Amino acid sequence: MTDAPEAPTADEPDVAPDPAPAEQADPDTFPRSYVEELRKESARYRERAKAADDLAQRLHTALVAATGRLADPTDLPFDEVHLEDAEALSAAIDALVAAKPHLADRRPRGNVGQGARPSADSVGLGGLLRARA
Predict the structure, then answer these.
(1) Domain tally for the chain?
(2) How does 48-69 read in b/e, with b if 16+ C-beta sit within 10 Å?
(3) What gap in Å lies between CA 58 and CA 78, rounded to an integer?
(4) What mean pLDDT comes out for the span 28-35?
(5) What ranges in the chain are assigned the alpha helix state H?
(6) In sequence order, which residues have a C-beta less than 8 Å from that of residue 115 and are 6 or more positions away?
(7) Is 132 domain-assigned?
(8) What is the residue-averaged pLDDT of the chain?
């Protein structure tokens, strides 16, 4: 037996071979202009998402700074939960200060016994002269 290709018989119709893959119209391809438009749109969405992420970071830092409990508000790592839940933010600051007390704000608050204080008596030159007379 030989492995030679059989010649078509008269009963079998001649069938043209399938066109090459490059010649076939692939239904999954799109025109270049459409693809470029989609890429530009995706780039705009990525830029917006990056801007939103940057604003969320800034808001987180501002919320931490507003508490006044940390010397540097960027010491608390960013977490989206802190933006929505004030109790979670407070708990995170408490945990950070408990673990690292040197990060707490150390500015004195209230009356610490320093600075100018108003006196009860008004001091004047007339009162000094009368006291010595």
Answers:
(1) 1
(2) eeeeeeeeeeeebeebbeeeeb
(3) 10
(4) 88
(5) 32-67, 80-84, 86-99, 125-132
(6) none
(7) no
(8) 81
Domain range for 49: 32-106
DSSP string covering 13-44: PP-PPPPPTTTS--TT---HHHHHHHHHHHHH
Q: In whole angstroms, what is the distance from residue 76 CA to residue 53 CA? A: 16
Long-range Cβ contacts of 33-38 (<8 Å, 24+ apart): none
User: How does pLDDT run across 60-108, given as a tens digit for each residue?
Assistant: 999 999 999 999 999 999 999 999 999 999 999 999 999 999 999 888 8
Residue 9 lies in a domain: no
**Is there a domain that residue 101 lies in?**
yes
